[in-house]
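Progress report, Aim 2. The chain analyzed during this reporting quarter is listed below.
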Amino acid sequence: MSKVMLVFGHGYSASALSRLLLADGWRVIGTTRDTDRLADMAALGVEGMIWPGSDPAPALDAATHILLSVAPGEGGDPVLAALGADIAARAGRLEWMGYLSTTAVYGDHQGGWVDEATPLTPATKRGRWRVAAEAAWADLARDAGLPLHIFRLAGIYGPGRGPFAKVRSGTARRIVKPGQVFSRIHADDIAQTLAASIARPRAGAIYNVCDNEAAPPEDVIGMAAEMLGLPLPPAEDFASADMTPMARSFYAESKRVRNDLILRELGVRLSYPTYREGLQALLAAEAPTP
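Predicted structure tokens for the chain:
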């Protein structure tokens, strides 16, 4: 039987996975709410579908694998609410399901370490929504026998999502909050982690997906400026910095996330084990071909 991946919310991370799967002969179907994205998906080789709006039944009937990449809201997970029963009815056909969550479920640990067994104590509204969505999908998976895997992603970066454009334009900011660290993950390493799980499924598994080194955000901006040979953006104290509520909320949590499980169980070898290798690759990719 041919492999068919159905992605709900075919965005940045899913695109990286789709490139791997399509190169390996998979069929990939992806949903989006934005008609403007359909052309980009088609150029990638993904069969795009507007959802909500289109009937998802044919795609659900075809799918052997499902990736859930739609963010929950105050009302819960929209895919679960609309299609949970339909997905459960096809449990016997599915070989793998993945849910893309976030390390925000752990909340603030003041720079301390967390792993997959750490209690979930989210510090933000978005984190609380994710905890609820994880639990709801896990309940459905248990009741219906769905092969669910949960992936808690750290801060995502990659092509088109690096700091260089802001440093070049002079809009980059070095916000300094003493003790603040973030874990990160390159989109390509998300993709290879998901592919490794697909190859070695373990229903019920939960994985942290991050690189090997949590770092202060100002260090990343500083390295980007150094690599470009541009002046270091001035440091701004977090307490007095002019920031939007959304931007400020990201600083409500500081933690170091362990990735031992993906390395040990899935055999992942990170292409970008720290932000340094990731930034070097992003800058090299921007260089014109001789």
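The CA atoms of residues 4 and 62 lie 7 Å apart. DSSP finds eleven helices and 13 strands in the chain. These observations will guide the mutagenesis work planned for the next reporting period.
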